[in-house]
Amino acid sequence: MAQDKTSDPRQSSGNKLSVLRKHPIFADLEPDALDQLCRYAKHTTVKRGATIAAKGDPGNNLFAVVSGTVKISSSSPDGRNAILNLIGPGEIFGEIAVLDGAPRSADATANTNCELYIIDRRDFLPFVKSQPELAMKFIELLCGRLRWTSQQVEQVILQNLPGRLASALLGLTEERKLDSGSGTLAITQQEISEMVGMTRESINKQLRAWAARSWVRLEHGAIVVLDIDALRELAESGLEGG
Amino acid sequence: MAQDKTSDPRQSSGNKLSVLRKHPIFADLEPDALDQLCRYAKHTTVKRGATIAAKGDPGNNLFAVVSGTVKISSSSPDGRNAILNLIGPGEIFGEIAVLDGAPRSADATANTNCELYIIDRRDFLPFVKSQPELAMKFIELLCGRLRWTSQQVEQVILQNLPGRLASALLGLTEERKLDSGSGTLAITQQEISEMVGMTRESINKQLRAWAARSWVRLEHGAIVVLDIDALRELAESGLEGG
DNA sequence: CGGGAATGGTCGGTTTCCCGACACTTGTCC
DNA sequence: GGACAAGTGTCGGGAAACCGACCATTCCCG
What we know:
The structure is a homodimer of 242-residue chains.
Chain A lengths: L8 H12 L3 H4 L3 H10 L1 E5 L4 E3 L7 E7 L2 E6 L5 E7 L4 E2 L1 H6 L6 E4 L3 E7 H10 L1 H27 L2 H15 L8 E2 L3 H8 L3 H13 L3 E4 L2 E4 L2 H10 L5
Antiparallel strand pairs in A: 1-8, 2-7, 3-6, 3-8, 4-5, 4-7, 9-11, 10-11
Helix pairs in contact in A: 1-3, 7-10, 8-9
The structure holds a DNA duplex (30 and 30 nucleotides).
């Protein structure tokens, strides 16, 4: 997993460089700037289930995912849980609190064992301000996030369970965040229920109805999307599908 | 209403200056930059109900609200409607499509008669890039939007009707977007239902239950919040309240 | 390889909420 | 000032989803 040894700064820096360059937001930085960024980035690994950041904390760090997936979620006093986003390799998270200085608005936990880079806010904020191009990149990133989140609100208001579930499966399939090839999504039904805001039972019922139609195939801890067009049609019409 | 006459550039520019300076995002600009911005901004008025921008359009304009309120919404094929945001005086909207170049993700309609400034993307984008401070302001703006929208997703997933309704009323009261003093919200029950994603009937039923407890008072086309603490408690616990 | 945790599958009773319909009030525009 | 639109109040049937309670299976870790 962690091939760079923190005891060897030279090699560490070299690996960091090649990894950070794959993150779209840093890809176009000048070599000097990228090098500077590498010096700021600290390498870490976290075990599945571990808390990376908690709601309400000061946002002192920006995170970049090297491997694994991170779950952004929030929970209510009565134990219910809402999954807001899943962050995969090549993506960053925790940028909002870093950029605006307000407390974290959600929890971040390791959905699988993860390899991360952590960048301190005190290093990063001046760095962004010194790189106008990077600021524009962040504006684009935030715009994308906003589009995604607004669409979620839209779907949750306009669509019923089948529509929402279809939309969620489509989103996961298209982004390939959990894709291990040919439409296999490594996600539990419990997690899906927390993404769309319905109970696990309702999700299970709907999924098996679709499995009977060969739209999907259910495996343990995974869902295989077989007929993506059927799901797309259902998601777009927003109706029916029981 | 419209005190600046477009036939008189001098006076127009003077008024624009004082108005644009009230928008937090432009407030800290250098006088020269602000002056430049005024030259870009075109003044317009739109009548209640008129479409300002439509979903799918290219985002060629940034809008700043001078007076009135604008409704950001999206509708499904079967006629259902979702209100995503309400924009009041001193706020801007339409910035996402301008900043990232993608099509508009929602409709914008005049909720009341409105007075707006319109700025062309071709003028504005180079302007932002030439003003590093402004880029940071936009980052903060987008972060705020993202926090608000994420919270909406959270609420819609975690809370039931009473909780969501209470949260919506609290939000509207605290932002004072529709406030005409002492907690009076100028909003119809139909509109609230489209904000929280429930039917008007359900909203009406819940509101009258609260009116019976003197938590709110219902007027024609308006809601007066009487006991804000009761609503806050309900919104935070997320439970009960029938 | 064995035990426990995680995940999936299943079931009715109950609640919530939608749906369609309608009467009444208020406001607005000609 | 009168017609019409917009907004509110109300009702009951029926569908959708929750809830709590299970057991079966699979996986993972010691």
